Amino acid sequence: MKCSQCGYELRDGARFCPECGAGQTSKCISCGFVLKPGAVFCGECGTKVIKNSDSTTGDIKKIAIDPSPLILPEVPVRIIEVNAIGPDSDDEFAVTMKYHIDNKSDQDWGYFETAIFLFNAAGQIIDKIEEKTYEFVGAGKSVDLTLDEFYIKSKLLNKDAHTVMTVTAYHIDSHDLGVVDIPALANNVVTITPVRFYNDLQLLNASLWRSEVENTRDVRIHLKGLIQNLSLKYVPIVLLAADVKNNSGEELISLGGENSMLPGGLSSVSSFNFTTEKRIRGATAEMMLSAFWPTAQGTTQFHGLQQYSDV
């Protein structure tokens, strides 16, 4: 067995560490409750006690993960730190995480989907967190990202927590659809010219119009489109966007409708936003179609976390 404080190799049954003097009181791996000598189950939460003979080290074994079926190039990713602050009045820890990504490809990345799986020391999954991040990382560049904090009950968390992270990087292909005038009359529909981009995407139809003036004197601008995926790839996000500007070039509002697309599939997108009747006079809309293509994927693991009291 090893000292829980400094890692010094101890004789079995040692109550104190001869190296640092730390007491070797056994605690439940799930809730942290102090265990009685010889306990088989935790008296607080009922978790089975893992004895030294059941594990040759104090570390959880790495989770076995097969290569991704997407067969994408690797995203070099590593977790820098995992911190837990608390517990708060709800007996929860606020957990934050910082991680590093290297783009060693020849493509720029602009969007990331991150999935985090948190395990306790017994290898039991206790939480899953998913985050979507817009961050430009040019070819050959790197970036440090921070995961938004999430909350976990204190009994589920301890310093032997184990984290598995998978990151998928996306290259954003954007296509300029030109500029159209915002109609002067309500419900007068403007059509965006259909267009095909390489052998990947096809804008079949897109329309823009304005509503009647509402009681608040606001005008609603509508955007709708129908897009076809001509490729054999799944597209997690296809985005039809419009930046509405006045005749001085000042941006008034933005619209953006998005959806996912199966290989060869059709997908409709829609969006609306508000502005005033006065501001919209003589305005134009700059149109853009963007597709997010998965280009690389990586997985990493990290053992342990740093706990801080919020008192």
What would you say this structure looks like, in words?
- 1% of the residues lie in helices and 51% in strands.
- It has one helix and 15 strands.
- The strands form three sheets. It has a six-stranded antiparallel β-sheet with strand order 4-3-6-14-11-12, with no helix packed on it.
- A hairpin with a 5-residue loop joins strand 11 and strand 12.
- The longest helix is centred in the last third of the chain and has 4 residues.
- About 3% of the residues have low confidence.
Count all strands and give the number.
15
Q: Could you tell me the radius of gyration in angstroms?
A: 27 Å
Q: What's the domain count?
A: 3
End-to-end gap = 33 Å
Unreliable runs, pLDDT <50, ≥5 residues? 52-60
Question: What would the principal axes of the Cα set say about the shape?
Answer: elongated
Biggest β-sheet: strands ordered side by side in the sheet: 4-3-6-14-11-12
The SSE order reads EEEEEEEEEEEEEHEE
Largest sheet: 6 strands, antiparallel
Q: Can you tell me the CATH class of the largest domain?
A: Mainly Beta
Fraction of residues in H or I helices: under 10%
Structural class: mainly beta
Query: What is the annotated CATH architecture of the largest domain?
Result: Sandwich
Looking at the structure, the CATH topology of the largest domain is Immunoglobulin-like
User: Could you report the average pLDDT, rounded to the nearest whole number?
Assistant: 83
How many helices?
A: 1
Give the strand content.
over 45%
